[in-house]
Amino acid sequence: MTDPAILKQSLAGQDVVFAALSGDLPRMAQALVDGMDEAGVQRLLFISSMGIYNEIPASVGASGNLDSNPMLSSYRRAADIIEASGLNYTVIRPGWFDSGNDTDYQITHKGEAFGGHDVSRVSIADLVLRLAHDPKLGSRDSLGINRK
Fold this sequence. Notes:
By secondary structure, the protein is an alpha/beta fold. Helices cover 32% and strands 23% of the residues.
């Protein structure tokens, strides 16, 4: 992610970038934004975490918010970098992943209270595919996803 030559080669000819990363997220987010700008790739789907905007209500588990969980600070900084870019981004903020086989999910937007705690990996994949195939869906937005 942070080797400009490898990133440039990987981005060449791409229409959509899906990033589900771990590690130094702010550094990787900046490298990705810079690389996408250079390669002329506009669409970024970036997995972050619920709680980065303190959007989890007490009924769902407010201890998972950034104010209570400093582990989320790198996720928030990465989201801030992406949101400040000129890219057609969607930051995806899933609940806790589980192995359910359902696609019974709801979406919340930045500024709205998160609706639930868990979400299936299948649901996340469904959302990512929808976003990848429709550049207007979730454009320049941050979407929470949780099971209904």
